[in-house]
């Protein structure tokens, strides 16, 4: 097993990640809310699941704390509402598989935050039928 470099002292470390549509977006390489991740993220709803409240069918988000599927702030804001009511802050987009933290108010860099990788891998597999091409993790960059 490869030893994983643990850089837990990263505070507000930000790296630029190339976003598919919107150009350069900032994604954080650390997040202090990973303890709220569900303990079972291997069994998650299908990426084409509708919003559990309004049945909106596309571009929904998955709550990584309770695995609820809810629509985006551009539709009926059910995920935002869920966050405000429950405090669940880590969500994954079924449309582009990006991970957003409401508490950090930032996208998270899945390539650099290992606890997010298993669920990312599962969603990627469900959506595209193959595992994601993870970059090799290196701490010297
Ligand atoms: Zn966070
Ligand atoms: Zn909805
Ligand atoms: Zn939740």
UniProtKB/TrEMBL annotation:
Q: Residues in domain UBP-type? A: 29-130
Q: Do you know which PROSITE patterns this protein is assigned to?
A: ZF_UBP (PS50271)
Pfam families recorded: zf-UBP
- Bilayer-crossing residues are none
Q: Name one GO molecular function term.
A: zinc ion binding
Alphabetically list the UniProt keywords: Metal-binding, Zinc, Zinc-finger
Q: Which PANTHER family match?
A: HISTONE DEACETYLASE-LIKE PROTEIN
Q: What is this protein called?
A: UBP-type domain-containing protein
């Amino acid at each position: 097993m490869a030893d994983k470099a643990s850089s837990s002292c990263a505070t507000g470390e930000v790296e630029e990640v190339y976003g598919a549509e919107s150009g350069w977006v900032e994604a954080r390489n650390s997040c202090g809310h990973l303890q709220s991740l569900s303990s079972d993220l291997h069994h998650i709803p299908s990426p084409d699941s509708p919003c559990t409240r309004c049945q909106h069918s596309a571009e929904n988000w998955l709550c990584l704390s309770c695995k609820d599927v809810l629509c985006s702030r551009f539709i009926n804001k059910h995920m935002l509402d869920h966050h405000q009511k429950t405090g669940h802050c880590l969500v994954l987009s079924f449309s582009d598989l990006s991970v957003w933290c409401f508490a950090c108010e930032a996208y998270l860099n899945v390539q650099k935050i290992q606890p997010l990788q298993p669920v990312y891998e599962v969603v990627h597999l469900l959506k595209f039928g193959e595992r994601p091409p993870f970059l090799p993790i290196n701490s010297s960059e």
